[in-house]
Write a structure and sequence with these properties.
The complex is a heterodimer.
Chain A (H helix, E strand, L loop, with lengths): L13 H4 L2 H17 L3 H17 L4 H26 L1 H24 L2 H12 L9 H31 L6 H25 L5
Chain B lengths: L3 E12 L2 E13 L3 E5 L6 H7 L8 E6 L2 E2 L4 H7 E4 L12 H8 L7 H14 L15 H13 L5 E5 L7 H13 L3 E5 L3 H5 L3 E6 L2 E6 L1 H11 L2
Parallel strand pairs in B: 3-8, 3-9, 6-7, 7-8
Antiparallel strand pairs in B: 1-2, 1-4, 4-5, 9-10
Helix pairs in contact in B: 3-4, 3-5, 5-6
The chains are: A mainly alpha, B alpha/beta.
């Protein structure tokens, strides 16, 4: 299974050539502005900017649709709740901002090699070494988080299929318990593998 | 070849009902280029293998690699002794093939361009060059295992400990991985259920119920293992 989040797509577009540090700063600024100046107009503007960025980055449409489909259920639930509690304008503000920011993060991961991201974070955290911060470890944790998203989605999918095979697809315990156990087991195995490779030594 | 010594090394695990011995006090020295560890499931051979790289530390006794005590010089030992797991999925921690190999090279190649070039060179060496930009998610089981091996071999260790690296693979990929393992110049400690692979080694160690029950010529050790299976 392939996922947009956490999947770098090599390319030569303007966004691919842009330094990872600049992209991280831009993302932080846009995210802050979206929260500080929150309104339906801001969320719609954010979505417009992000769609333009996705086009510039030449993100494959099929991959984009697949990712958005994964968000659909959660977004429908949030929209329904917001319309019911606060009205449609608030719903547009919240859901528009959420989808916009998720897609913005997607633009970052699709156009930035994780190795480049690690170097950027390591450099940025360099001055904090004197306070006991290990930049390499922080950068590695960041990359593991990105790598963990598709892995966790795969584990969820396998768990769901296993439950379906036993006719237990409507049993929440048959879905949640093995999913949690497998995720923790995978995290432990990853830690062991990193230890074996001497990463973090 | 490296000199791997176990001196009365004993491994225990805590359980809800107290302490259980996983590997009884074991003393032996491995200097052969290819050593096979064989035995039934749950016999303690993976624990034995994990001792050699410091993934498991002995409750008592010592494990020494080229004069370095695994318990005290773990970092140095891990630079000499690489470890490959049965399931490579957890071992591949970066999104793309080239990035995963580059992760192993971060310590030795601080410059990113240089590191990427070195990682590509490693991939070419192991026949994975064409997959460099592929997502590790999209690889087949055999490709993942080869990549996991390339990732740990990238730092040019002295010893490779491989814990059942062919168990999850089909016949063609088993052959491909086995051919790679037996072509390495590194010393190989191979945990395996594939007795044909064990017979290709210079020495075999049979582990059963947490004890070394046979050790020596692979043909004799494998014959003894077969004779003991009902």
């Amino acid at each position: 299974m392939s996922h947009l989040i956490g999947a770098y797509q090599p390319g030569t577009t303007f966004l691919h050539r842009m330094p990872a540090g600049a992209k991280l700063v831009a993302m932080a600024v846009i995210s802050l502005a979206t929260v500080v100046y929150r309104s339906p107009a801001t969320s719609v503007a954010l979505l417009g900017v992000v769609v333009a960025l996705l086009a510039v980055a030449r993100v494959r449409l099929a991959l984009l649709v697949r990712t958005l489909r994964g968000l659909l259920v959660v977004m429908v639930l949030i929209t329904t709740f917001q319309v019911w509690q606060q009205g449609w304008q608030h719903a547009v503000t919240v859901v528009g901002a959420l989808v916009g920011l998720i897609l913005l993060a997607t633009v970052l991961t699709v156009t930035t090699a994780v190795d480049e991201m690690l170097d950027t974070i390591t450099r940025a955290l360099g001055p904090f070494r004197r306070f006991g911060v290990d930049p390499d470890l922080v950068a590695l944790a960041f990359s593991l988080m990105i790598r963990g998203i598709p892995t966790t989605i795969d584990l969820a999918s396998e768990t769901r299929q296993a439950a379906m095979a036993r006719g237990l697809e409507r049993n929440p315990r048959a879905l949640v318990t093995p999913m949690v156990l497998r995720t923790v087991a995978h995290a432990r195995a990853t830690g062991e593998a990193l230890h074996a490779r001497g990463v973090g030594d | 070849m490296s000199r791997i010594e176990l001196h009365e090394a004993r491994v225990c695990a805590e359980t809800g009902r107290g302490e259980v011995e996983i590997l009884a006090a074991t003393t032996l020295t491995l200097t052969e280029p290819r050593v096979a560890l064989i035995g039934p499931n749950g016999s303690g051979k993976s624990t034995f293998a994990r001792l050699l790289n410091g993934l498991v530390t002995p409750r008592s006794g010592r494990v020494v690699v080229d004069g370095l005590d695994v318990a005290h010089d773990g970092r140095e030992v891990r630079r000499r002794v690489a470890f490959a797991f049965t399931d490579p999925t957890a071992q591949l921690v970066m999104p793309t093939v080239v990035e995963d190999v580059a992760l192993s090279l971060r310590r030795t190649h601080p410059d990113r361009d240089e590191r990427t070039r070195a990682a590509l060179s490693v991939l070419d060496r192991y026949g994975l060059g064409e997959l460099a930009e592929r997502s590790v998610h999209s690889l087949s089981g055999g490709q993942r295992q080869l990549l996991a091996l390339a990732g740990v071999l990238a730092t040019d260790p002295h010893v490779l400990v491989a814990d059942e690296p062919t168990t999850l693979l089909d016949l063609a990929n088993t052959r491909r991985v086995a051919d790679l393992l037996f072509s390495l110049r590194q010393q190989l400690v191979l945990v395996t259920h594939d007795l044909d692979l064990a017979l290709r080694c210079d020495r075999a160690v049979l582990v059963d119920a947490g004890r070394v029950t046979a050790d020596g010529d692979p043909h004799e050790v494998v014959a003894r293992y077969r004779a003991g299976v009902p």
